[in-house]
Amino acid sequence: MEINLIIFTKYGNWRFIVNRYKLLISFSDEEYGEALAKAFLLQEIGAEITVGDYDRIHSFDGFVITDKTDVLLSDKVKIFEAYTSFSEVNEVVVNSFQITVKNHSNHSKSDTRIITVMGCEGGAGVTSISKALGKEMSLYYDKKTCIISFSLFPDVCVEDNSSSFRKLLYRLTDDTCFNSGDREIVPSSFFIKTDDEYYTPYYGEGINPLCLCEEEIHDKLLKWMIDSELFDVIIIDLPKEKVFDNKSVLSYADNILLVKNARSNYMDFSKMINMINKIINKESKEITVIVNDVSGHENENGSERIEVEKVHNNVSSDDKLISIDYDPESFQEGRIHIDGSFGIGIKNIAFNALFC
């Protein structure tokens, strides 16, 4: 059983700050209070805790440990993974918990927004929506935006220095010669600015170099882009067949946009939702479901119709879906408003991703 645990710490007698953690804890029994107490090996912790056991939820608010000698780990608790919002973690915490520290999507050290756009099937319009969203972010919101495609053959122009992005990925494989927080690197070194004002990598000729890398490199790439603060918004164009090979992309995402054809099989869509939830372990993420009508049906303006689907009742609320009604008055009420125009749809999706 995996337990989601959020810990907020404050100053203790050791005079250090431990950053925000998300711990996944496995319990061998149901003695939650004792198990949690024995899991905290710090001198002073103020925690807001929610523990779930399938159909039950137990909450512990303001749980405080003041004597570290009384909170030794027992065999009942196994802490096997942790995520931190900052790249530097106090060694005392790491050694105490005996955990592996990874970056979590709540990267509060940077204001970079990561949006992953993925599809339920090929031809759903993932790339079109990604590009339109990138243009909207760049031109309307004046956000320095980059679109990274995980397609096998990205639709980008090839420049003379098209090998630059390959060089970047190669440098990321060697931690000794590449500082992930290097701020002297400028986007023009590895990324090209399009006519629509957003950036995209110099992929070069042939197969997308991202598709030839291990997931560890994808993780390092996103971490470098976040720490370097090169971009305000990073949009990930993720085809369905690449989801299992790029789990870290979903882990880093602040927003997940799932695009489906208006006439796609609902069972396939439901399976896709379940697959995503298994990958992200049902973290505190919201999945916006976009229904893109690319079947040739046009509205009165001759544009493709795009709308956000209201989640069907037979999809569990645990699936973390944003349920957005198709309501002309909803935008004035602070919710997203989608009408028959593709452009208006993109504008509202962008607004929702940035501010909701």
Explain the overall architecture:
The protein has two domains: 2-103, no CATH class; 113-355, Rossmann fold (3-Layer(aba) Sandwich), CATH 3.40.50. Helix 3 packs across helix 8. The protein has helices spanning 32-39, 91-97, 126-140, 164-172, 215-228, 247-252, 266-280, 342-355; strands at 2-8, 21-27, 45-53, 56-65, 77-84, 101-103, 113-119, 145-149, 191-193, 199-201, 233-238, 255-261, 287-298, 304-308, 321-322. Mean pLDDT is 58; it is low at 1-109 and 294-341. The protein is globular. The chain contains eight helices and 15 strands. The chain is an alpha/beta fold and 356 residues long. The longest helix has 15 residues, at 126-140. Strands 7, 8, 11, 12, 13, 14 and 15 form a seven-stranded mixed beta sheet that branches. A six-stranded mixed beta sheet has the order 4-3-1-2-5-6. The protein has a two-stranded antiparallel sheet with strand order 9-10.
Sheet with most strands: 7 strands, mixed
What's the N-to-C terminus distance?
Answer: 31 Å
Count of DSSP H/I helices: 8
Contiguous uncertain segments of 5+ residues: 1-109, 294-341
Shape: globular
Q: Let me know the average pLDDT.
A: 58
Class of the largest domain in CATH? Alpha Beta
Provide the structure class. Answer: alpha/beta
Element pattern in H and E: EEHEEEHEEHEHEEHEHEHEEEH
CATH architecture classification name of the largest domain: 3-Layer(aba) Sandwich
The proportion of strand residues reads: 25-35%
Rg for CA atoms: 22 Å
Q: How many beta strands in the DSSP annotation? A: 15
Oligomerization status of the protein chains: single chain
Task: Name the helicity range.
Answer: 10-25%
CATH topology-level name of the largest domain: Rossmann fold
Q: Compute the number of structural domains.
A: 2
